[in-house]
Amino acid sequence: MSAKYCMKVWIFCVGLAIYGVPAFTSKAEAESGPSLIELTRKHRQHIASINAEWLGNTNIHSSFDLKAFLRNLDNEAFNPPPKDLYSALRYLVVPDNKERDARISRRFIEDPKAIEVLVAALKEESGDLNQFALDKLLWETRRKDLEQYAPVIKAVIGLDPKGDEDLLLALLPLTQDEQNILLSQSRLSFVTRARLGDKEAERKLIKQFEDGDYDEKKNLARFLGCVGTPQCARALVDALQSPLFNRFYGENENHDYSIRIDVLTALGNIYQDELLFTREAVLLPYSEDDCFNRVGGKANYLKAVDVWVQERFGHSAWGEGEVWFVRRSPDG
What we know:
Blueprint: H1 3-19, H2 27-31, H3 36-42, H4 44-50, H5 52-55, H6 66-72, H7 82-93, H8 100-104, H9 112-121, H10 127-139, H11 143-146, H12 150-157, H13 165-170, H14 176-183, H15 190-195, H16 199-211, H17 214-227, H18 230-238, E1 245-249, E2 254-258, H19 260-270, H20 290-293, H21 298-313, E3 326-328
Antiparallel strand pairs: 1-2, 2-3
Helix pairs in contact: 9-10, 16-17, 17-18, 17-19
């Protein structure tokens, strides 16, 4: 019996003794659902259809042959290696077809089949498969879609979360007993603690964000969006007036990127159905290019965000001075 399994059983028993109820569905129950290979086989026609253009292009060469992989799935005895399952999963989540740009310009994964397969991938032992699924579920899946798989996700991760697994758990509907058991773990990240209602952790997170330089603000913004409390939302909205930017050096010219880009996309983690912070915000890095004008142009966007902030927070979004997202640097 592994040490990790023993630790899970021990923590579970402590939770049962203290709170009188089991904290999570049993792992065996989660593992009784479809496996990654079973769901990939089930959805092979879907994977083929959304990648039809790529599959039909004979001039494209890749170390991974998607066409052969999908054909082999017809054989029930076919047992592909984890690296091939990983490649197939990527083609499902980000298809290589004519709608690829439209799909990745949406803030969240829209395909329910992709979400179902990502949840199954959490069970895999392969680090690449597991981490890819975790990242996509954590940062690119709406909470309302995650909630459908809450029992399975909680059972797979169990009471011994590692890495960002604790944060994914915290995005799910949890009972008070489940929250208490998680909060009792000393190694829980302070971001997860804030998400679970720890006010001191939330205060520290907001303070670090407010005092941070560009890189710190960029990294902490999305965590504030993940925590998603009213105080975190206000801290993000206030940062829309921040003058911070970073300079990126290109081969032919240099560009400055405003911290507003990261703040607005972080707000999309809180207001997941607000197109200003989801579909439109993903175009912000290209706001000086024609692609941003497809959704109405920068001037209209600035006005719409300002109206939204005034209605909900009672002040202007932008403050004084020019508001920009990307600009050519003076020395570029």
